[in-house]
Amino acid sequence: MTKLISQGHQKKVSLLVIDDDPTIRLAAEDLLSAEGFDVKCIESPQELPDLLTDYHPDAFLVDVNLPFMNGYQVCEYIRNEHGMHCVPILMMTANDEVESVNKAYDAGATDFISKPINYLLLAHRVKYMLRNHDSLRQFMQQQSSLVQAQHIAKLGYWSLNIEDNSIDIEPYSAELLGWKPDIKDEQPMSYSDLLAHVDPHDLPMVAKAFGDLLQSRQPFTIRHRVRTSTGEERVLFHQGDIFVSEGGRYVRAIGTIQDITERKKAEQKIYEMAFYDQLTLLPNRAFMKEYWDRLPVNMIDADNPFAVICLSLNQFSRVNDSFGQDIGDELMRRVANRLNRAGQSIKMLDKLQVFANDTLVNHTSRKKSDIVARVDNNSFIFFSKQFGTEDALQQLCKDIQTLIAPPFTIHGTSIFLSCTLGVACLSDEINTFSGMIDAALSAVSYAKQQENESCVYFTSEMMIKARARIELEKDLRSSLKNEDFFLVYQPKVCLDSLKIKGFEALVRWQHPTKGLIPPNEFISIAEETGLIEELGLFVLRQACIDLGRLEDAGYHDVSMALNISPRQFSQVSFTDIVSETIHEIGIKPEKLELEITESIIMKNVDHALQMLHTMKDIGVSIALDDFGTGYSSFSYLTKFPFDVLKIDQAFLRSIPDDKNALAIVISIANLSKGLGMRNVVEGIEAPEQLFSIMDIDCDYGQGYLFSAPKVFDEVLHMLAHKDWSHFIGEKQELQLRKLP
Question: Which CATH architecture has domain 275-458?
Answer without folding.
Answer: 2-Layer Sandwich (3.30)
